[in-house]
Design brief:
Radius of gyration: 23 Å
Largest sheet: none
Number of strands: 0
Structural class: mainly alpha
Strand content: under 5%
Shape: globular
Helix content: over 70%
Distance between the termini: 111 Å
Order of helices and strands: HHHHHHHHHH
Number of helices: 10
Length: about 280
């Protein structure tokens, strides 16, 4: 008869509880998250400055807006994690939810800009007008922020567990439809590029770029959807408290830090500088 496996040592079995309950570990993990977000924010700001210096005459292009929004989102996350203990002490508690949830909405808007850009390429390739896409983008964002604001008001008026679950499920649903948007528009753009002539300039590079970014964004938002659903119905997976730093670290690393880093690296190229052709003025004689 096989011997029963030896029980794990108490030191190993209680590691999770000791780390989560240790103020030193909490400060270290949240400080580490703040540093990682700060690095991404700095990289995005540098990209905005590089694009502005290279082609100032282009104005606010989609690429520049995307990089600026990344700077804002990651800068906000950096500040929140750097001051995590102060955030936990904010009263009334509804403002804690606003501070922690608002960057999620901003993250959605940031990557919705990228999906909008791909949708505009598809429409222009088919000779269709893109005005409705932009108006739809603004309308959808307005509805999303209005609904989340309404949920915050309800949570303030009646702060019970059911309202908190509904608020988290709203974020989960938003993440699911964003993932679906990347699957649809990213997939359609990928297929369109795939059937371009083989000798088209930049075809292979764009094909790889769209395929990688669409896959990363789809997995990122789908993972957020799953984890937010789990978070909504399991108190042991609460991300809004100080004593779950390890869970916070893996959650934000998987759904924001790694995807943002990879996407910014893939989209690191900036426009080429415009070349003004040299000419000789005509003689008045």
């Amino acid at each position: 008869m096989a011997a029963a496996p030896a029980p794990l040592p108490a030191a190993v079995a209680g590691w999770w509880e000791r780390v989560n309950g240790s103020p030193a570990w909490q400060d270290g993990i949240f400080g580490g998250l703040a540093v990682l977000y700060g690095i991404i924010a700095a990289a995005s700001f540098i990209q905005v400055a590089r694009i502005q210096r290279r082609v100032p005459e282009y104005g606010w292009t989609t690429q520049k807006v995307f990089q600026l929004l990344n700077f804002v989102v990651n800068g906000a996350r950096c500040s929140i994690f750097a001051c995590r203990r102060l955030v936990q002490q904010v009263n009334p508690p509804i403002f804690q939810h606003v501070i922690l949830d608002l960057p999620v909405l901003a993250f959605f808007t940031t990557y919705a800009v990228l999906a909008l850009f791909w949708a505009e390429i598809l429409y222009q390739a088919r000779g269709l007008m893109t005005d409705r896409l932009r108006s739809g983008f603004y309308t959808i964002n307005g509805i999303v922020y209005a609904l989340q604001g309404f949920l915050w008001l309800c949570l303030w008026w009646n702060p019970n567990h059911s309202m908190l679950v509904i608020s988290k499920l709203f974020i989960a649903g938003l993440s699911f439809f964003t993932a679906l948007g990347f699957l649809v528009y990213g997939g359609r753009l990928f297929l369109m590029l795939k059937y371009f002539p083989l000798d088209s300039k930049g075809r292979q590079q764009k094909l790889r770029e769209v395929g990688k970014v669409a896959s990363i964004c789809f997995c990122c938002f789908l993972a957020r959807c799953i984890m937010m659903c789990f978070n909504a119905f399991n108190k042991e997976a609460d991300l809004d408290v100080l004593y779950h730093p390890v869970l916070n670290f893996f959650y934000y690393l998987l759904v924001e830090i790694l995807p943002s880093s990879l996407v910014l690296y893939i989209l690191r190229r900036i426009p080429a500088k415009l070349q003004i052709s040299q000419y000789q003025p005509l003689s008045s004689g």
